[in-house]
Amino acid sequence: MNMKWNYPLSRRSFLLAGTGAAIAASMRPWPTRAEGQNEVRLTAAPAQALLIAPDRPETAVWAYNGTVPGPVLRLRQGEPSRLLVENRLDEETTVHWHGIRLPNGMDGVPGLTQPPIRPGETFAYEFAPPDAGTFWYHPHADGLVQLGRGLAGPLIVEEREPVAVDRDVLWFLSDWRLTRDGKIAGGFGNMMDAGMSGRVGNMVTLNGRVSDAEPVRAGERIRLRLVNGALARMMALGFEGHRPVIIAIDGQPCEPQEAVGGRLLLGPAMRIDVVLDMQGEPGRRYAVTDDFYDGLAYTLTQLRYSQEPPLRAHPADAPIALPPNPLPEPDLTSAERHELTLQGGMMGGGMMKGMGGMDGMAMPGMNGGAVWAINGMSMTGDGDAHMEPALTFKRGQSVVLTLSNQTAWWHPMHVHGHSFRVLSRNGESVPHRQWQDTVLMQPKDTVEVAFVADNPGDWMLHCHVADHQMSGLMTVFRVA
Prior knowledge:
The protein is mainly β. It has a domain at 336-479: Cupredoxins -  blue copper proteins (Immunoglobulin-like). It is built from four helices and 33 strands. The strands form seven sheets. Strands 20, 21, 24, 26, 27, 28 and 30 form a seven-stranded mixed beta sheet that branches. The protein has a six-stranded mixed beta sheet with strand order 10-9-12-17-14-15, with no helix packed on it. It is globular, with a radius of gyration of 21 Å.
């Protein structure tokens, strides 16, 4: 797979709020799931968060259990869990358990899989996660605003057997658009964001905090779980002096492999697990940088080595491959084949057919106008537009979808209720044919994916740039 890391987005069209990219990273201890604990309670409510620095004001956010990101939820593979979500916001909400292959009624899409959770109400999500891996949770009601104000958190489904690493580390990456005084900027759902790159912010946090370094020790082996919880920001992470080995993508184990071009490419909603053998020099610092956007590279954090002697003289020799998850293998010889064409947006050779160009374009996003389409059909909002399914599959049918991006913009395309194999990109077979639930498409890309439609119900397929989803880049498929 040949990917161009630098995205040629001009400073004028980048639409940064505030005074440039104040980027930060930190890691704080994460709670673990108590043995035998199968019930979790999450409360969505307004809160305050110290995002920038101790000497700066707190930011008013919306949060799960008072923290951004929300608490790490640790479930066990195959074990029933009950997650109670209480809504203390002044508007309706839901929770989507991103990447989990769960029953349709637990998927968290308002009007499609469940009634929205009204203010003051509680909804119980019950499911047994079939796959171990790194996942996350976020609203699917007023998702642009609720996620943009902080409602998101990581979810880890633990393998049945421990993985041979010295530490299991999570970096949950969030992107914020803040004003000079540290408040969340308004303007959600504006036409420029919706028709271009989405609401890219001016500050990135790691685990909700600003910090300049992450402590490590020479000789240790780390499993690093990376989650891109941003509304729209693409990321291409490089680790100075280190060679991360990818062991899972979107929660699904893959053949261990080094990153293409030495960079880890993460679109919004994507996750990558890597193994890092810490072979740097004690006392040194090594930069972790994000250079996805042309001319706007920044240092996300630094790996700060302690002065301690190396934990071991040579990298650990324990195997790093993860056990596979129980995914059904699609039969490509009998698969149904369908094409889905992504259309619309600005700067893409004209607006969508019938839009009349920018002069005739309705205000998109939260105000209901469509800027994007899939096969000429636009589904706006969060999933409650009552649109008939674009595709219907018989349960157990193998499916090959050809996704064609005819726009000038990047799109992380996410499928609910299933994971798919990525077969090819622009006519070339993809090495390893990894399992994913979100595939990142650059402008003019054509990607083939395959899966078994084995999970009954109506499911969303949409771009995970929140502005794009809200303004039409979404559809529904049915498994019956």
